[in-house]
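In this supplementary section we document a worked example of the pipeline. Step one takes a protein sequence of length 465 as its only input; no multiple sequence alignment statistics are reported here. Step two produces a three-dimensional model, which step three serialises into structure tokens for compact storage. The input and output of this example are shown verbatim.
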Amino acid sequence: MVKHMTSIRIRGIYTTALTKFFINKEYMINQMSDVIRERFPSYETHDIPDVDVKHTRDLQGISIVGDKESLDRIARDMVETFNDVFILKSNIELYGIYKGSVIKTNHETIINLGQDIGILPEQTGEEEVLVQVLEMNDKPTLTTRITFSGEYCVIIPENDVKISRKIRDESERERLIEVGKRAKPKNFGVLWRTSSEYVGEETLLHEAQELAKNAEYVMDRFTELEGPGLIKEGKHHMKIIFGGQTKQSLDSIRGKVVPTIEYHHMLKSAGRDISFAVDVIEKIKGERDIEGIDELFTSVFRQVKGPKIGDDVTLEHIKPSSHPVYIEGAKVKKFAPPYIKLKRYISSRGHYDGLNVPKEPGDYAITEMKEGAWHFTHTYYDRDSAIKGEYHNICTPIEIFPSRIRYIDLEIDVVRRPGEAPEIIDVDQLEKRVEEGVFSRKIAEIAKNEASYLLSDTEREYDDY
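The serialised model returned by step three reads:
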């Protein structure tokens, strides 16, 4: 029996590294760009890809669409190879068709899809709507323009027959219009794709009629289904979020193929201008053997882009199973790479998480971090500079960007109140993420080991800076 080799189409800033990674794992690569084809000349397939991979909108991971079996395999391979990857499998299917119920409408409409919610970027006066998933963002982006795609045609919501502009033969266009009039379902239209040109009428009619049956089924099911839910399946979707160590591992993989500077993927995810600078430096690195070019570029990058003393920076506190938390108002007090020290004043009341001590206006927090470390420390003080407590946050290796510091929270933490021994908290939350499949057992053990280390040694480790 011939083993099926999963084929993948890859796009985005991680393409070279991921292409090398997947080739090593015996995948085939589909529809390579000219640059990637030059780098990997013997691994391209022209079959329809099983899986589509592209970087996420925030550039901090990858979005993957395909069949369930292929996605499960990719998740296993990524978790086996990398430490800080986080698997977020969607309950909603891309291109799936749903009966949705309207939760709220304003300039856009929030739709209950049954297992999750989606965003319809328009207003609607209906209580129930037929929608199709158009894109997978933080929440699925929906459309009321329902389509059914085949090899030769697309069933479209406009009650008309349309033809690809690339078909220029007038007699052929007239023929396809006549076939389309017989083929299109009630209340729907037909768009003939370029591939339909000169294809036999029987073949075209058969496909259009099969797609028309899908359209009729969906309309019937919309009426029959009592509540929100999936009517017609689409493609499975998952997102894999990368921590700082995984980006560095991908740097190493890429470096085996082409000249790659240190922190390549972190810098490429920092913005367009920095990404362009990386391309220029790596071109120079490929053409000339300049000793220390990586360190020189990083040093210049820090001097030009920061962060600098007095700058405001945002802590980008990523919780994979929910929305990011942005902690603002922190000012840089010291930056001696890889160390950074921040000060943030507290303006609200309540209690400090994990410490259960009062939070009062006038308090302030000193945050000490080290780029690449698996934890950092918040020390909370009252207005008279007496310590209220320490909070050691266990996280993925810290990434310092010009105006933000990014890390992925690993749930488990170590806290210490004045005069008390340190203690580990939130182990149950860590285990919950493992049960959900978001955290691997491997990353959970790394987090626990880091917490145990801090429990035995919470002496100030930043004094040398």
